[in-house]
Write a structure and sequence with these properties.
The chain has helices spanning 10-20, 25-35, 43-55, 62-77, 87-97, 106-118, 124-140, 157-167, 180-192, 201-215, 226-254, 261-267, 272-292, 297-307, 315-327, 336-341, and strands at 22-23, 58-59, 98-99, 102-103. It is mostly helical. Among the domains are: 226-292; 297-341, no CATH class. The strands form two sheets. The protein has a two-stranded parallel sheet. A two-stranded antiparallel sheet has the order 3-4. α6 runs antiparallel to α7, α7 runs parallel beside α9 (180-192) and α10 packs across α15.
Length: 344
């Protein structure tokens, strides 16, 4: 008989499933109703979900979706400050899903991608961990982290999608920019599969990802402590309340017969001055972007070394050089011999 939420309390349900060693679709539905019944996934429920993943061998297809939703809700949305994954939480998570130094399986990898994709901040090491798992799966073939019976040394569409989500996630270290470590991993994947029939989308991701690092470089940030994030959130909320009060004050006096409307508009704390500040910020942003879109000496040397690693310019590397030639605002002379050598 399929288990339902009325057949047993949550702990009894979990014990029964572990004893059975399998989770059916009806069981997934019962678990979903139990865990999400109050709209909150708490620490005990998260612990039960982790236990079921590791101790039940046979699982229905719907299990992966439930597993990712429940644990992402707990780690990203229900822990304060929301959207913030600190080093301690990332370490706890990796300890739970690592077996013999590797991610246990595809469900755990899906969870990591879900967390990185939905969080506002994650430690850089967690993102690199996911990319290394993809690299491992591409190379291992018959014994991958995910993707049963894969052909070794081939980048398939799901690999491209995972890499794209991780490097361009909102929680990326540079805020939609790519770090040097991530660019290194993109090159490592490309070098390992140069002769393979990779997914067509791989070249575009490789070219634009590496170019993103070179033309919009930012180092991985120092992740602030949770207390710091909470203080910033409280300060921002207080500022929003103050701005709302002042705006209401301005509308009240500006539209009445108190004689203060003209004086208030002359002060214009949210009008002309704000507009001037916005223009100044935009000018500063553009100046910074122009500077960063140039390829400097260190970047030129890094790219030259990566391309020269095997002494052959491959198709994707040529596409990268062409993209840089067309889009960089300036290119350091150290890269020009590489460009000239390959006719770019």
């Amino acid at each position: 008989m399929p288990l339902t939420e009325t057949a047993a309390p949550a702990t009894d349900l979990v014990d029964t499933l572990i004893a059975r060693g399998g989770i059916g679709e009806d069981d997934v539905l019962a678990l979903r109703r139990s865990v999400f019944r109050d709209g909150i996934v708490d620490a005990n429920e998260a612990e039960m979900v982790f236990a079921l993943e590791r101790q039940c061998r046979d699982k229905a297809p719907g299990w992966t979706t439930f597993y990712c939703e429940a644990l992402t809700d707990y780690i990203v949305r229900r822990r304060e400050p929301r959207g913030y994954v600190d080093e301690a939480t990332a370490d706890m998570l990796m300890q739970r899903i690592i077996e013999d130094g590797r991610i246990h399986g595809p469900t755990e990898l899906a969870l990591l991608v879900s967390i990185v994709d939905r969080a506002e901040t994650v430690p850089p090491g967690l993102r690199v961990f996911v990319l290394e798992a993809v690299h491992d799966s591409v190379l291992r073939g018959g014994d991958p982290v995910y993707g049963k019976d894969r052909q070794p040394g081939v980048i398939v569409p799901v690999d491209v999608e995972i890499v794209r989500k991780v490097v361009y996630a909102a929680a990326s270290p540079g805020g939609f920019t790519i770090t040097e470590r991530e660019a290194d991993l993109l090159f490592a994947l490309n070098d390992a599969t140069v002769d393979a029939d990779n997914a067509p989308a791989w070249q575009d991701l490789f070219v634009k990802g590496v170019a993103n690092y070179l033309m919009f470089p930012r180092g991985a940030p120092v992740i602030p402590a949770a207390e710091t994030v909470q203080r910033r959130a409280a300060k921002a909320a207080a500022g929003a309340d103050t701005r709302g009060f002042l705006a209401r004050f301005a509308r009240a006096f500006g539209g009445g017969d108190f004689g203060f409307g003209e004086a208030w508009r002359a002060l214009d704390p949210f009008g002309r001055e704000a507009e001037r500040e916005m223009e100044q910020r935009e000018a500063a942003r553009k100046a910074e972007a122009d500077m960063r879109e140039a390829i400097d000496q260190r970047e030129a040397q890094w790219l030259g070394q990566r391309i020269a690693a095997d002494g052959v310019l491959h198709e994707n590397e040529r596409a990268l050089l062409v993209f840089i030639r067309r889009n960089a605002t300036a290119i350091h002379p150290d890269l020009e011999p590489v460009m000239a050598r390959f006719g770019v």
